[in-house]
Design goal:
20% strand, 10 strands
Length: 316
């Protein structure tokens, strides 16, 4: 069999590459650039590239129906393709009031105020910016109207959220879940990445279904993955791989926007198929991505069921 992968790619590299969506993008009209939230988009740019959430989900359409194939090299020099199906594990969409004026009736009441997002600085690294949530809840900020405005203006308003709790066998693939949720939250199809707060994110669970050629049982191929992705254009020019020593080729304008995972968790990882590449650095990389995901959830004060299950945290 012939595999389309670079010889220098490890199996972990290949999984992350194959499961990263590259979304069709557009350029924001110059007349709209001046109206962007400067707390979320502090940089002066001549061109602002963005994508719609509807185009993001299109990347998962075929994967949800047939799975995505990941070429894998085994220790005995055998090669195969493992197929994974994506499932929506969690999503939180924060946006500004102006972006959801026509959608507010679709939003659950009582979920509008959340923790504040600290001011962003243009010289911050991806990791630094990720953690600039000050952890002060709206309840702690007092009842003053100006204080409440300040909180919501920085983090945004929670338009919708979803956390999957069913067992893998009871779930529907990601595209089916999004189609269902969008009937209640139409903004899941129409909102743009420039409309979203930096606190907007999603997690995708990847479960293996089969491999080609078939006929062998390999424990390592039962590994499940949980990838974390930011959804806001605030992170568009920040590559999460840069913080862990794996710079990628710089994307050119108009090539589409790739949502590389900033965090990762695994379940049922056995053997060394996923950690043997890059001279052992993949093990450190997995730990780093796990730590980033854990920190993100703590900063948002989120209990993510799949993350707790994958990492062995059991809560009553």
């Amino acid at each position: 069999m012939i595999f389309d992968r670079e010889s220098t790619q490890s199996n972990l590299d290949c999984f992350l590459h194959c499961t990263t969506p590259t979304v069709k993008s557009q350029f924001l009209p110059k007349s709209e650039i001046r109206n962007l939230n400067r707390l979320w988009h502090p940089w002066e740019r001549e061109n602002v590239e963005y994508f719609t959430l509807g185009n993001l989900w299109n990347c998962y359409d075929e994967w949800s129906a047939y799975g995505v194939g990941v070429p894998i090299f085994l220790n005995n020099s055998e090669t195969l393709v493992q197929y994974y199906v994506p499932y929506l594990s969690a999503i939180q969409i924060f946006t500004s009031i102006s972006s959801v004026n026509g959608l507010r009736e679709e939003t659950e009441s009582g979920d509008g105020e959340r923790d504040s997002f600290s001011d962003s600085c243009s010289d911050e690294s991806y990791g630094d910016k990720l953690w600039r949530l000050d952890g002060c809840s709206s309840e702690d900020g007092g009842s003053e109207q100006d204080s409440l405005w300040h909180v919501n203006n920085r983090l945004g308003y929670l338009y919708c959220q979803y956390f999957e709790r069913l067992t893998p066998y009871g779930r529907v693939p990601l595209m089916d879940k999004i189609n269902g949720l969008s009937r209640r939250y139409p903004g899941l199809m129409s909102l743009r990445s420039v409309d979203l707060s930096p606190a907007s994110w999603m997690a995708v669970a990847w479960y293996p279904i089969y491999h080609i050629p078939m006929g062998r049982t390999i424990k390592d191929l039962s590994t499940c993955f949980l990838t974390y992705h930011t959804l806001s254009s605030s992170f568009q020019d920040m590559n999460p791989e840069d913080d862990i020593g794996r710079p990628e080729k710089k994307r050119k304008d108009g090539e589409g926007i790739s949502l590389l995972p900033f965090g990762l968790a695994t379940y049922k990882m056995q053997g060394n198929v996923w950690v043997s590449g890059n001279c052992g650095r993949d093990q450190e990389r997995l730990l780093s991505l796990l730590s980033v995901a854990d920190s993100w959830l703590k900063q948002l004060k989120v209990q993510h069921h799949d993350f707790n299950y994958f990492t062995g945290i059991r809560r009553g």
